[in-house]
Amino acid sequence: MAVKKNTSGKAAKTKFEPSYTEQQGNGGETHQQAGGDVATLTSAQGIPVADDQNTLRYGARGPALMEDFHFREKIFHFDHERIPERVVHARGYGAHGYFELTDSLADVTRAAIFQNVGERTPAFVRFSTVAGSKGSFDVARDVRGFAVKLYTKEGNWDLVGNNIPVFFIQDAIKFPDMVHSVKPAPDRDFPQAQSAHDNFWDFISLTPESFHMIMWVMSDRGIPRSFRFMEGFGVHTFRFLDSNDRSTFVKFHWKPKQGLQSVVWNEAVKINGADPDFHRRDLWNAISSGDFPEWELGVQLFDEEFAEKFDFDVLDPTKLIPEELVPVRTVGRLVLDHVVDNFFAETEQVAFCTQNVPPGIDFSNDPLLQGRNFSYLDTQVKRLGSPNFTHIPINAPKCPMAHFQQDGHMAMHNPVGRANYEPNSWGAAGGPRENPKQGFRSFASEETGPKRRLRPESFSDHYSQARQFYISQTPIEQKHIADGITFELSKVERPDIRSRVVSHLLHIDEELATTVADHLGLPVVPEPAEVTQPTRTDLPPSDALSIVKNGPKTFAGRKMGILATDGVDADLFAALIAALQAEKANYKVIAPKIGGITLSDGTKVAAQQKIDGGPSVLYDAVAILASKEGTKVLASTPAAKDFLTDAFTHCKYIGYSSEACTLFKKAGLADDVDKGCIKLGSQNDANAFVKTCGNLRFWQREKLD
Ligand code: HDE
After folding, report:
1. Which atom of ligand 1 is nearest to the CA of 317?
2. Nearest atom in ligand 1 to 90's CA
3. What backbone torsions phi and psi does residue 158 show, to the nearest 5 degrees?
4. Is 376 annotated as a binding residue?
5. How much is the CA Rg of the chain, to the nearest whole Å?
6. φ/ψ of residue 32, rounded to 5
7. CA–CA separation, 285 vs 608, rounded Å?
8. Is residue 150 part of a domain?
9. What domain count does the chain have?
10. Whether 162 is catalytic
11. Which of 95, 376, 550, 637 could form a disulfide with 353, with the two C-beta atoms 3.0–4.6 Å apart?
12. What residue stretches are annotated with the Catalase core domain (predicted)?
């Protein structure tokens, strides 16, 4: 079809604008020179530049001249643009926001941030994957980092957590081994951003303490729908201290107001190809469009007496405290309301340190936390190149600072005046002094015992909570765990490693273990792994551990992919858009041509994706709005059939115009149409469809073995 000429020269404004756009700037300017509002280009030294297109050289075709300071400075700076990526959590995405206190904790902590209800504290959050390098894809099966920097009035508090409340190892000395095992093998440098390989599972199968965490990572928690739909956990037990230095143990939780949501594995694999930036794009788009993600901060508070009675050691980071035993008290909310101005300056240079805690918050003896407190400071110097990384704006506290630290690479602020030491006898001019009353004080715990390298016996039950997690899942989630482990082990080449993993699963759940063994085709089910005391105890299920039981309540903030063709009924199209807007949901129009479609009444609708660029894996639910002619076009387009079959396989709700019916036939799904496939004819249908999409997925479609 010929492209119609636009005589006005301006883009035709359509009735249906996309819910948000990622474009910025004018995008259409050609080479322009300074003048008017356009600033003059300068060198880093401020020298105005006359020509930025050509190096200084002899004649038109002669050699370049060393004298060309502009060229040299430009290339020199470019050559030094990279800094080392983080040794773990290299791929991350950050945003700014604030924390607002909704319930005072003045009874248990003197931390300034927890005193006054309604008070807002600026925050910066960086989400991340762990294993992949900086340029890896977003939807790897992995743990997600959830690092929060809170710029409190008494200094920065870094709560450097994950989206999983437990960890693989109990002692920090094992961290390099654990990380080496999951990262690409040193000889071949693959696989990238994956745990499905021999080295990782070899380490895991020889490290029984990791199995609780393994259950979480192999569950759908390992493939979140986006950062907005996942929980965060401080993991370790921390302490709160009140003004009398009375200690209360505390565990921190971030609960997304959006609810919990994940993708399925087959979908994740395809998302990574279709949009490697799926998670960062989601966060950027949500915040940019004013749909600010929000989490509640919850605390589990308990004392020594509870800690003594609890079946597990509260210092063991492979254990959680079930919410049924110690309820989570909501005390505030975290809102992310603006994206970064510059990725490098903020997200890349932000330096989280677990040891950054303000007065009123203190550490426990968790051996992992103790080790982290050493590692984070060290790693920032390596990454950012100077002990003055606190001078970088994203890392600088927003409260007054006064100390005698000075000099070093890139020192931006040095003490003024004569005295750069204390004690001194220069009076008020001599600079800051200690403040025993207001300053940070550690909890005066009494420690005794021989100096030894010993793992406490109270850390030795590795399976009870792993089982508790498993039995707390819905059947579909349990199936996904079995599928996840089977997939990963199918990529493990050594049969003995596969068997060794199953030998541990037998302690967690026999049916899970035998299912995995069967799906792997193990010749024999191995003997259960040898265990040290104590053996497993049976713990009750906990609803808080399931994603499906804690999903979003509506379709708000989620995304519908509308595959639409020319000639589709204009009323139906408008009805669906109205229903989505009423629900505060997003949508994208996917069409055979990126130029868009023309509805039955002649209205032009812009498309945001051409079919092969907008597969259904990128959307939470889909609608296929096609005319009779349009359905024929879709039926002869392989990507359109994939759009439908993938949406169907991934248990998505599918709305369709009656004319689009035949696409089901062409896609081989004519006999499978179920209650998750909803025919759309009227405004009521559209409203009901969008409401139904709030239920996440039509899980009934996935067969349980
Ligand atoms: Fe980290 N971890 N970690 N970690 N971690 C780092 O610090 C480390 C652990 C976590 O967005 C590094 O700045 C050790 C648990 C997050 O910038 C490094 C141990 C938890 C981030 C480091 C752990 C985390 C990191 C690498 C075992 C959840 C990203 C770059 C004792 C509670 C922060 C950096 C960001 C980053 C060390 C275990 C979370 C090397 C030694 C447990 C979210 O310092």
Report:
1. 42
2. 30
3. -105, 115
4. yes
5. 29
6. -135, 150
7. 14
8. yes
9. 2
10. yes
11. 376
12. 42-430
Query: What CA–CA distance (Å, rounded) separates 652 from 77?
Result: 49
Mean pLDDT of 358-372: 98
pLDDT band with cut points at 50, 70 and 90 for residue 411 = very high
pLDDT for the residue 396: 98
pLDDT digits (tens, 9 = 90+) for 262-319: 999 999 999 999 999 999 999 999 999 999 999 999 999 999 999 999 999 999 999 9
Residue with tokens 């509506």: 554
619 appears as a binding residue in the annotation: no
458: tokens are: 């109270």
In a domain, 293, yes or no: yes
CA dihedral 690, 691, 693, 696 (to 10 degrees): 150
Q: Catalytic one among 162, 285, 388, 586?
A: 162
Q: Which residues, 6+ apart, have CB-to-CB distance to 343 below 8 Å?
A: none
Q: What is the CATH number of the domain that holds 576?
A: 3.40.50.880
Q: Is 336 left (phi over 0), alpha (psi -120 to 50) or beta?
A: beta
Q: Is 86 annotated as ligand-binding?
A: yes
In a domain, residue 12? The reply is no
Ligand 1, CB within 6 Å, residue ranges: 86-89, 92, 126, 128, 145, 147, 160-162, 167, 172, 175, 235, 317, 350, 352, 368, 371-372, 375-376, 379
- To the query of whether residue 89 is one of the catalytic residues in this protein, the response is yes
Rounded to the nearest angstrom, the distance between the alpha carbon of 376 and the centre of ligand 1 is 7
Q: Say which residue the tokens 């024929």 belong to.
A: 632
Percent of the chain at pLDDT exceeding 90: 93
| 48 in any annotated domain | no
For residues 390 and 10, what is the distance between their CA atoms, to the nearest angstrom?
49
Last residue of a domain, one of 391, 419, 449: 391
CATH number at residue 235: 2.40.180.10
Residues of the domain holding 630: 553-701
Task: State the greatest distance between any 2 C-alpha atoms of the chain, in Å, as a whole number.
Answer: 90
Last residue of one domain, picked from the residues 376, 391, 406:
391
Helical packing angle, 265-274 and 278-288, nearest 10°: 80
Nearest CA to ligand 1 atom 8: 372
pLDDT at 18: 58
User: Which bin fits 407, alpha (ψ -120 to 50), beta or left (φ > 0)?
Assistant: left
Query: Nearest to residue 123, comparing CAs of 394, 358, 329, 402?
Result: 394
Closest CA to 590 of 578, 615, 566, 607: 607
What burial class does residue 589 get, using C-beta atoms within 10 Å of its C-beta: 0-12 exposed, 13-18 middle, 19+ buried?
buried
